[in-house]
Design the sequence.
């Protein structure tokens, strides 16, 4: 068989009336695509604006809570720290103890 | 003319329908020669036209509509073949007989010689196969292929020549 003979007859076929059906299917598929796209475009601005509002409120809430908690924690810890140092100072003044007992108190070792 | 209609939203649908009617057959056979299966081709043709439709705004008319469609079809086809190659790597690493697959296709009406010829084409690297099909089956000019693939005419001629030699050798060895 000559090299060019293969080209003379197509070895592939398609179902009957395939190309008419194909054109129709393509048109239908693009119409569906258009409908989906336009619905997505219609929905997007509302969705995006609602989401951006929610995100902004959430960020503000998180930042505000963080600042509040941080401030209250700081004041608590400062209060407790000064309280504890006062207690130690008073204890050392009023009840003189040896260095080892004091070391045990600080390290928590019995 | 058709390009102006494509840019006009009110005429776009009608213009695109004309494009589908004019090029769907051409695009179908181009893809079919690459992927062989009718069902896969059917999906890829539809995908090509949907991509074209959604990309109309980005088409500036610098090339012909057919060139633009061919480029989309080629990208879709090569992506499909790559995906299929990954999905169907045989676990046993044995070479599966291509002619068995093609001959069992309900829409293949060729004989053993045709199947062998298709098998020989199937052995070519994808890009070379693309050039061979466009030149041999679709009888395109090198200049047209060059515009679609963005490859020089000289390189295309060399690629086609090498492809023909490979096919001849394959058929000689397997006949």
Sequence:
């Amino acid at each position: 068989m000559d090299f060019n003979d293969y080209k003379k007859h197509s070895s592939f076929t398609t179902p009957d009336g395939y190309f008419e059906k194909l054109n129709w299917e393509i048109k239908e598929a693009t119409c569906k695509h258009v409908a989906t796209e336009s619905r997505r475009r219609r929905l997007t601005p509302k969705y995006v604006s609602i989401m951006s509002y929610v995100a902004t409120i959430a960020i503000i809430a998180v930042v505000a809570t963080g600042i509040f908690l941080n401030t209250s924690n700081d004041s608590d810890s400062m209060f407790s720290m000064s309280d504890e140092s006062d207690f130690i100072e008073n204890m050392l003044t009023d009840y003189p103890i040896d260095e080892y007992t004091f070391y045990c108190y600080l390290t928590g070792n019995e | 003319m058709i390009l102006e209609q494509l840019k006009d939203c009110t005429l776009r649908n009608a213009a695109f329908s004309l494009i589908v009617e004019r090029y769907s057959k051409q695009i179908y056979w181009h893809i079919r020669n690459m992927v062989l299966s009718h069902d896969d081709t059917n999906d890829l043709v539809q995908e090509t036209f949907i991509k074209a439709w959604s990309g109309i705004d980005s088409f500036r008319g610098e090339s012909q509509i057919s060139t633009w469609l061919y480029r989309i079809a080629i990208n879709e086809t090569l992506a499909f073949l790559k995906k299929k190659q990954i999905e169907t790597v045989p676990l046993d690493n044995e070479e599966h007989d291509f002619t068995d697959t093609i001959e069992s296709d309900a829409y293949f009406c060729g004989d053993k010689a045709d199947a062998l010829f298709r098998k020989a084409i199937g052995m070519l690297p994808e890009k070379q196969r693309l050039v061979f099909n466009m030149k041999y089956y679709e009888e395109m000019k090198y200049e047209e292929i060059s515009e679609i693939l963005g490859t020089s005419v000289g390189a295309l001629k060399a690629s086609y020549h090498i492809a023909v030699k490979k096919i001849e050798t394959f058929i000689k060895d397997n006949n």
